[in-house]
Amino acid sequence: MLVGKHSHEAAATCKATTDRIKSGILLVKGKVGGDGDNNNKIHWKDTGGVPCTLGGQQSSLKRLIVGGGSGVKMNDGTLVFPVEGTKREGAGKDEKTVSLILYLKDTKNWTLSKGMSADGCSVPSVVEWKGKLMMMTACDGGRRRVYESGDKGNSWTEALGTLSRVWGSKQQGNVKAVGSGFSTATIDGVEDNRNVMLVTLPVYPKEKEKCELHLWLTDNTHIVDIGPVSGDDDAAASALLYKSAEGESGDGNKEEKLIALYEKKKGDGEKPSPGMLSVRLTEQLQRVKVVLTTWKKVDDLVSKLCTSSSTAKDASPENACATDKITDGLVGFLSGNFSDTTWKDEYLGVNATVKKEDGAEKTDNGVTFKGRGAGAQWPVGEQGENQLYHFANYNFTLVATVSIHKVPEGDTPIPLMGAKINDGNNNPVLLGLSYNKKKKWILLCDGGNTRDLSSTWEPQTQYQVAIVLQNGKQGSVYVDGKPLEGMPFDLKNKGSKVISHFYIGGDGDSAEGQEGLSVTVRNVLLYNRPLSSEEIAALAKNTITIPKREGPKTLVVDARSPTVSAQDVERTVTQSNSPGQLPLEEEPLTANIGAGGDVSSAASVTTTPSSDDGPTVVTVGGDKMRGNGSPQTPEVGVSSGEDGETLEVTDAQGEEGIHPPAGEVNATALNGSLGNVSQGNNSDAGTVRGSGLLPSLLLLLLLGLWGFAAL
């Protein structure tokens, strides 16, 4: 570890190239153990001074001190320590603190990084993440900035698209910054041991004056508040230690330990603080594993978006539909997890709030909004102290599947979805899409300016809408994978204004002509990056083509088997036949498989041959779907685990937002353009409904019925 010493080497004996900075830093090495086999104490005996000539590497610095945060040993053996520097820009100007790193290579050569943070950033902590160094600092203005470097600090880039400026403080005035715990961990037993970052930071609950130390989990995309770790203590600076090693039993099982070390604040009139306190975070570590399992399940569901009807060539790594690309930067996902006024994020991050409880109704994988004032708000700046979606001020893509059920009557365009900026008491639209009684799309931008578009919409028709912000100043809107006219365009009035929230299904305001309106929004995806036009097109086109219906034709098969045992299951399968075959009417296949093991209900199969005609419109569950539409899909429960215990984790809103049994995750199946499951070739694709996994016997039955119905 690095420590500071009180007496610095005299300027006369130090051969530094500048008199403005003399290193007063020692490198201290500790050795674990000593007398006795059970002695695990650390003996700090080996000390060595950092060269006093170090200041010559940064002539702009006046002073250099140890930063107080944890260092890291990189994969190449380099020891990296965070340090603080003080510089003066000129006579009469205030001194500014900056954060940078000091690293030791080959145990001999010390190097002070050329790059540094912005002025006013202190108490840095450093970790190595995927070949880069990441440095977290507490900066003037109350927000923590995170920087990344791929060249050992020669240059730093602020991570505005991921972690930077996410965490803040509600405290005002000249408040002393405190260091954060910042560590990486490879969590055993999750996704072949998943790499994550763990952070401990103070949080100031609204109902309390004392600060609580919270543990946060992130994979540099998703962020979840695991919960408090400091109890009733008013915590300040903190550090984290994660250890995974073979247990003492020798059975090959690893023993994991997550330990938080924090400083207890000294309150007015209280006795001096006892110093540092440590707590083992056993329960929090189990909650981390629950969250990671949930992320994996949701990623798997979203990945089916581009693999359901794509060929092997289409799914190649270079293709926009490759699995790793379609979830790359996917931060939030709103689907069928809705109750009361809360539309919960499937990734357990930030929840959306429905503004009018009696104007919202849960539907398959989404919400139907009705009447005046209906709609949902997904907060960005409105989150307050900690803003998990701060990236949206620079880059984002918001994608949703929408259906407008009725043509509005008034002259005022009706908001559908978009982003609003925080402008005092007013929240004008930065970028959004509306619709009017002429069945035309209306673009909103730059604080409420409107632009009529020639593109039209039809009621009871399902569309995929994507709204994109790039570099904080360029906007685009897509419908069914195609950019609307005039895209992209420059946003001239945003400036430094920040996004308040996303609005979905309506902006929550009462407006003329909204009586009797009804809009359904399903499967809302939020990315922390601007998706390319190819990726957006891939999302939109990856659906089953449903041809025109011609005349009823039903096939009913009584399927019974005493050997099948599962929960009640309902399945619907849609088939597209090769060109030239006669069109058949959809024939629903339903099978109720009881817990007793018998298939007790009649089953009918749905087959719909394709045709060479152009895009068609078909009504499914009240919604029309164009030629690239697909049926609605209800929820699917994905379950693993045995003990049935419940773990509770606080979500980003402070609610008990994670309640799956150990090892169990309930996720929502994708519908519409997000819900197709591949059947192994290009001509047969289906949508699966129900809860539980499809038994192999029923799968064989479905395959046999498909072949029979195609004859």
From TrEMBL:
Domain Trans-sialidase C-terminal: 326-533
Residues covered by region (Disordered): 561-644
Coiled coil stretches, renumbered: none
Pfam family, one: BNR_3
Superkingdom, natural source: Eukaryota
Composition skew (Polar residues), residue ranges: 562-580
Sequence ranges assigned to domain Sialidase in this UniProt record: 1-263
Biased composition (Low complexity): 598-613
Gene Ontology molecular function terms on file: exo-alpha-sialidase activity
InterPro entries: ConA-like_dom_sf, Sialidase, Sialidase_sf, Sialidase_trypan, Trans-sialidase_CS, TS_C
Identification of the protein by name: Trans-sialidase
